[in-house]
Amino acid sequence: MNVAVIFAGGTGQRMNTKAIPKQFLRLHGKEIIVFTLECFENHPEIDKIVVVCLEPWISTLRRLVDKYALSKVASIVPGGDSGQGSIRNGIYEAAHLFPADSVALVHDGVRPLLSDETISACIACVKEHGSAITVVPATETIVQESDGEIVNMIDRHSCRIARAPQCFYLGEIEHAHEMAVAEGRDDFIDSASLMRHYGHSLYTVVGDPENIKITTPSDFYIFRAIIDARENSQILGLWR
Q1: Any residues with CB less than 8 A from the CB of 9 and at least 6 apart, and which?
Q2: What is the mean pLDDT of residues 164-168?
Q3: Which of 165, 192, 203, 240 is disulfide-compatible with 129, CB 3.0–4.6 A?
Q4: Which positions ≥6 away from 139 have C-beta within 8 Å?
């Protein structure tokens, strides 16, 4: 079984919007979180979806699930006190519902441009290697600095930028979260760093550059431009 665990618990502070969390912002009348959920809903290899949501917005999300007939959404659970805590809530819910040998694809609710090819590649990578971290190549020079001074320049050709989904066997990532709770650790930046800390090897899947995280207003404008370009290409194709 392949289960998507979607983290949609952020408040969107960098979007400069106080009334609506960023995942509920609309483009052409459709919420960002719906675009994201449809990536998994429409993928033939995805069996079920668990969503972690800001608790006051759960009823809104349930209405959207019904409106857009997102039949693979098996559960919506409230977020935690941190990003790690929210993902943990989703993983624990998935582990309660589904077998430990399921592939869990942990994804950001505000990454709505995920391709079918990346999802399939991630599932295949987990089945072969036990993990799959979506990455894209670094396209600019990366430097390390200390007190404003550059102390090292890293060859960008050997660097990758980690994105999502980040995928593992469900039982293994559940166990890693349990170990973190036992140790009082709540400071892991993402699932990849959590799993690496607890001894798991990480393998990469090269994803699409379009698979951006919508964090700032600029990201939203890029998202809109990509969606509009896709729609325009489809319309133009009808007239060729």
Answers
A1: 52, 53, 54, 78, 79, 80, 83, 86, 109
A2: 97
A3: 203
A4: 156
